[in-house]
Every structure is written in structure tokens, then in C-alpha cells.
Amino acid sequence: MQLRHSVLLFKSAALISTAVVCAVSWFLYCEITNGIKLERRFSELENSVSRLISQKERFIVERDKHIAQGMEPLYLNFQDNFNQLLVLIIDEPEQVTQLANVDEKVKEFKQVFAQFEQAQAQLGYNENEGVYGEFRYHAHQLQSVASKEALNELEILVLELRRAEKDYLLRLKPHYLTLHQQYFEKTTYLVKTALPEQAAIYLQYLAKYQHGFLEYVALIQQQGLTHNQGLRAALNQSIEAIKTHRKILNEGILNARHNNKLSLIFYDLSAIVLISVLCLVLLNYLNNRVSNHILKINKVLQQVTDGEDFSIRTNLHGDDEIAQIGHHLDSLFLYIETLLARLSTAQARLIEEAKIASLGNMVSGFAHELNTPLGVAITSQSHLKEQVQVIKSDLESGILQKKALTKLICEAESALFLLENNLLRTASLIDDFKKVAVHQQYDDMNDFNLKTLVMGVFDCYQSELVPEQYSVECEIPEDLILTSYPAAFSQILSYCINNSVKHGKIASKPLNIVVSAMVVNDFVHFYFKDDGNGIDKELIPVIFEPFITTKRNDGGTGLGLSIVYNLVTQKLKGEVKMQSPAHGGACLHIILENTAYTYDADDADDADDASV
């Protein structure tokens, strides 16, 4: 009853604590959400202001009427963002004041821009409109009239007058305006003195031209020749004021949000700390009420879990519920210990049988591969011996001829060539097999060339992997050196080859095997792939468990991939995965996280001579 009541009390406290933490988290979430919404609205307001300013800059550069017409939608967008932001900060008087200042400065900016745009409309948006079009018309009339007179000096003065006009409009330098006035006065004087009869007409043209030009100059000066003159200066001042008030508003909003967050976080942390203290007190109270048996059972369970040692016992005394649990655990541990001992014995025997079978396949393949070069060597030796006996007999009989001796020498050279090549091939096979055998027997950590090791293992299976039925590709960097256990790699590769031959081969087509390796982010990735039968998707999750096989009736034990899994995870401290695409085939993927590697050019030269 005490234990039951204690558990009920603890559950109630945990439920209350969870409710309080959830409530506090909800308030914090709401505050953060409101802050994000406020920041988003302010960002939209900033963007609308930036678009207004950018539109002004475009208009000053391009002087396009459509750009000016686009200011009104942008201002309406600003007003919409202003109203939405105002709703969010309506309870903060200081921020409302700053927001109103921003709105006021934007309105001032809009008014100044309207004046600037009005001045531009008077100037004209192209060369045929407004003041600019009018004075250009009079300028062309003046040039036309001057060209009709046979007075070169007048025509030159008109051209100089136009050039001074264009220089000023292009460069906006005051001395060009002064120069223009001087040419105007010279032209007026020349007309009065040289053409007294037509002076009234010419002076009228000159006056219209000069009036239009001066009006145009006055308008562009009103707009501002530079960014710090005229309406342009007023626009820039408005922009700076907008930026200043916008910055103050941003800082005020951020500070207010920051202070609100700090306050809420403080209250949240205070509530969590208080709840934690209460829970700690309650747990201490429950711990004092519960018997030490619980702690002992927990300790035993922890030891069993960590060490997988089922020989540990609780050895509790008493007749209460907790003691009975301890007795039942002792009985369960005894049963599991006995069962594991039996399973370990059976598994060890089956694994040993699988290793022996794998070694037998390797030895059988090696013997079959060794038989060919030895047979050729023996045949060459026998043939050479027979020819030597024939020569010896002819020599003793005194009938030896030069032709026969020459033929013998040629055949001897051929036989010795075959003998030498096949003996070298035999020595190479024995060396490869010796390396595999040494790795199997002395499983120490060594530096080895991964490609050379893989090629050596495949050499032992050449009798089974005939070219007509199997294609083997090795895509491993030739200079990749691993510091690991070569025996483990040899065994893993042997089991993979056996699986591909027994389970993957389709009778109607050749089997393609690809072995590859690469280093990605200091992790060594090893792949063994084939395009055979593949693996049923139901078997993929349990493929590495012992005794999983589809060839049990054909002598399969289901231990090959289980041994591979143990070698990778326990010996090599890595990770192994099996994949089987829908289109067929299988891929064993090994990831080695803690395996040291280097790239050695010398070993790459040795690996160049190897082939599968």
C-alpha cells in the first residue's frame, strides 16, 4: 500500500508540474510569436519605405513619368503597413509616437517628391514636351534663320551659343552659363549692327530662345543640380529624417521586445526552478519511504544491462512485494544464463562450421587455380626431358645433327619459358594464399593496401568466378592504406563472395560484382555490390540476425552475414547496412568511422600490376 500511494503521489506531482511547465511554455510561445509578428510587420514597413526611396532614386536617374505614377501605390502600401504595425504597438505610447514621426516624415517626403515631379513635368519628360521642347523649338528656328543669312559670323555665334547651352545642360557648370550669356549678348549686338532691317525679327527669336533656356535652367536649379541643392536636398533631408526616426523606432521596438522576453523568461525560469525544487523534495521523500531493496534491484539491473552478465543476483531477503520481485529476477537471470550458455555453445559450433566451410571453399578454389600452372609446368618439364634423352641417345650414337640440336634448343627455350611463367604464377598464387592465411591466423592491427588485399582474396576464388559467368570490378584507390585488421576484411570479403555466388547468381545471365571504397569526411566507405537476385524486402530488417537464410535446404546456415555484422561492429568498430534495390541486386555498405587511413604512392605502384 505504501508503494502504491507513493507512486500515486508522484504521478500527481508530475502531472501538476507538467501542466505548469506547459502553461509557462505557452505564454513564452505566445510572446515569441507576437515578437516575430511585430518584427515581420516592422520589416514590411521598412521595405515599403525603402521602395519609396528607391523609386525616388529611379525617377531622378531616368526621369520617367511612369515611375512617378508608381509612387502612389507604394505610398498606399506604406500606409497599409503603418496601420497594421500601429495596431500591434497601440499599447506602447513611446513607440506609437516614433511611428507617427516616421509617418509624418514620409508625408513630407511625398510632398517634396510631388514638387520635384511637378517641376519635371514642366521641364518635359522628353525633348518635345514642356519647357525643354519649347526652347529647343525656338533654338532650331534661330539656327534656321541664321543659316539663311549670308553672314558667317552670325551663324558661328549661334552655333557657339548652342554649344555653350549644351555644355551647361551636360555638365551643369556655372561658367558655361556665363559663357552662354556672353554669346547671347554678342549675338544680339551683331544682329543690331549687321542686320538693322531684320533686327526686330531676329531679336524676337533670340528673346524667345533665351527666355525658354533661362526658364529651363531655373527649373533644373529648383530641382537641384547636385544632391545637396534644391528639391533634391530637401528629398535627401526627408530621407535622412525618415531613416533616423525609423532607427529610433526599431531600437525602441527591439528594446521593448527584449525587456518583455527577459521578464517572461525570468518568470518562466523561476516557475521551473520552483517546480524542480518541489519535485526534488518530493522525490527525496519518496526515496526515504521506499525500501533499499528498490535501489539494490535497480543496481543489479543496471549491472546486468551494462555488462550483460546474468550471473549477478539480487539476494534479497524478506516476504514483501519488492523482495518477491527480487526472487523472481534471480530465477529469471538463472534461466537466461542457462539459455545463453546453450545458445552460445550452439552458435559457436555453427560459426566454426561456417568458417571451416568458407575456408574449404577458398582452399578448393586455390587448389583448382593452382592445378593449371602446375600442370603446364609438369608437361613442359616432361617434354624437355624426353627431348634431352633423344639428343643424348643421338650423341652417344654419333648421329647428332646440327638441325636436331637447333630444334632441341628452340623447344627447350619454349619449354623453359612456359615453365618459368607458370612457376611464377604458382608462386604468386601461393603468396596470395599465404597472405590470406597469415591474416586469418595472426589478427593484429596492421597497415595494408586495401586494393591489394581485395585482389588477393579474389585470386583465391578465380576457379569459381569464371569470366563467362562472373564479372568483377575493383573501384578502390590504388594508394589507399588502412590501419586496421586485414583478417577481418578478408573474412568479410570471403563471406560476401560466397553469398553472391550462392544466393545472387542467376543462371540465365552473368553476375556483375563491383567492390569499391572511398573516403568521405574522414569516414571510410566500403561497398560490395552485385546485380543478382537481390534480397526480399521482408528480410532486409533481419538480414544480419543469425540463422536467416533462403538456402537452408541447400546447406545454408544463415550465419555468414551475422559474422560479417559482428566483425564490422565489434572488431572494426564500424557500421554495416544492406540495401537491395527494387530492380534487383544487393549492396553491402560498410562505414568505418574510427579507421585510420593514408594515401601512399609507393603502394599505388604495386597495385597497378594487380588485376582481378
Helices, by number, come to 16
Q: Please list the strands of the largest sheet in the order they lie side by side.
A: 2-4-5-7-6
Biggest sheet, in brief?
5 strands, mixed
Strand proportion, as a percent range, falls in 5-15%
* Percent helix: over 70%
Rough shape?
Answer: flat
The overall pLDDT average reads 79
CATH-derived topology of the domain at 442-607: Heat Shock Protein 90
Please identify, by name, the CATH architecture of the domain at 442-607: 2-Layer Sandwich
Keywords: Kinase, Membrane, Phosphoprotein, Transferase, Transmembrane, Transmembrane helix
Organism: Pseudoalteromonas citrea DSM 8771
Transmembrane segments: 7-29, 264-286
GO molecular function: phosphorelay sensor kinase activity
Description:
With 612 residues, the protein is an alpha+beta fold. Among the domains are: 130-224, de novo design (two linked rop proteins) (Up-down Bundle); 442-607, 2-Layer Sandwich (Heat Shock Protein 90), CATH 3.30.565.10. 72% of the residues lie in helices and 8% in strands. The chain contains 16 helices and 8 strands. The strands form 2 sheets. Strands 2-4-5-7-6 form a 5-stranded mixed beta sheet, with helices on one face. Strand 6 (575-579) and strand 7 form a beta hairpin. Helix 6 runs antiparallel to helix 7 and helix 12 (402-441) packs across helix 14 (486-504). It is flat and about 150 Å long. It starts with a helix and ends in a 5-residue tail after the last helix. The model is unreliable at 435-442 (pLDDT under 50).
